[in-house]
Amino acid sequence: MKLLIQQRVFSWTDSYDIYDEQGQVRYYVKAKFFSLGHELHIYDSEHHEIGVIKELVPALVPVFEIWVQGVALGRIKKQWTFFRPKYEIDFNGWHVEGDFMGWDYDVYDDSRGILHISKELLHWGDTYVIDIADPQDELMGLMLVIAIDAANCGE
Fold first, then answer.
1. What pTM value is reported for the model?
2. 137 φ, ψ (degrees, to nearest 5)
């Protein structure tokens, strides 16, 4: 299954709409307007909050925690590098490989592919496609991708 993440262009904060393959809105992401660091709230299509991504500040490099139902499930830390972004992922036992600059990367659980992320070109605003192997990984995969996007934008 696939999800399309489209960043809202004319918004005061980081906001995204997430669509399924049929073009139906599945999720909304909205940033808290006044917060120290990024704080992104994820809502289902009926506007119920289902998760939060919080930037830990102060920090020398971007660090984000992923929260679901008030429980911190993991952390994503951008590593300091000269050329290509790298991430330390402590989330679901997953690891990430690929080209973060070109937004073409994969998430694995041991050797099992969880999801593939790619950037769509020629769109108004940032648009990403998440190809998810198992529908049960949909929300966690989405939150990981949003956290990586926030870490990329944080610098």
1. 0.86
2. -90, 5
